[in-house]
């Protein structure tokens, strides 16, 4: 049980680090991405206007997909099993994803909210299954 808890914690911190690391790298190598991120952050903090760019939103969906699979794999690796740890991690990330939806609802289109939250749980579970298949 302790390994499962550690797997969930490691998977969560792995997701967060990979997400923010990915955003930082993208912002550095793709200035338009960085400018879009800064405008979004300013709108969230100050209640200002923000127009979402479809390319940036799709980039976030791809980043979320990659990070979710890796974090599920990490959770399964540390937990020593591929079912419970990725499932709990996926549910935790889904809850946080729904919180992000509430926070960013007026700034991005509904399709983005649906896709971003819908892929979290299945892709984390897929990452766990990939760990099982890698044995």
Summarize the structure.
The protein is mostly helical. 85% of the residues lie in helices and 0% in strands.
Can you describe what's shown?
The protein is mainly α. The protein has one domain (2-133). Helix content is 85%, strand content 0%. It has helices spanning 2-29, 31-46, 54-79, 84-104, 110-133. Helix 1 packs across helix 2.
Record the SSE blueprint.
Blueprint: H1 2-29, H2 31-46, H3 54-79, H4 84-104, H5 110-133
Helix pairs in contact: 1-2, 1-3, 1-4, 3-4, 3-5, 4-5
Number of domains: 1
What percent strand? under 5%
Question: What is the H/E string?
Answer: HHHHH
Rg on CA atoms, Å: 16 Å
Number of strands: 0
What distinguishing features does this structure have?
135 residues; mainly alpha; 5 helices
